[in-house]
Write a structure and sequence with these properties.
Length: 147
Amino acid sequence: MKISDIMNESCVFLDIKSGSKRGLLQELSDKASKITGIDSRTIFDALLERESLGTTGFGGNTALPHARLENLDKPCGIFARLNTPINYEAIDNRPIDLAFLLLSPDSSGADHLTALAQISRILKDGNLCDKLRQAQSKEEIYALLSN
């Protein structure tokens, strides 16, 4: 599975202004709702349920919120760069400024895990994350993510 299988340039959002973890998850849910057609509250509730199991704050100022949804046809990814870092209760206790949301169909066990692994490799690459922070456009970010 490639990043281009789960997202396109319209799934990249720059300069997110959320001031809290909950606010970020709500904003990502709203954006995902417009892309997937699934109710924003359904997405938000699924993300909160996943967060209750343990933080998806990945460390290195990044987060990988994710959830499985019944009415989703295929995995969907959304990348967000925040204007100002927020406390996300990350495993390293550092604020996050990059978030990659992954939503997968409830029945997609292997695809979900494959996509999580691929996204986690991106978020663990400090050099790539620095380039994502410095990128000037959605197109540049998408090119970095999909290569």
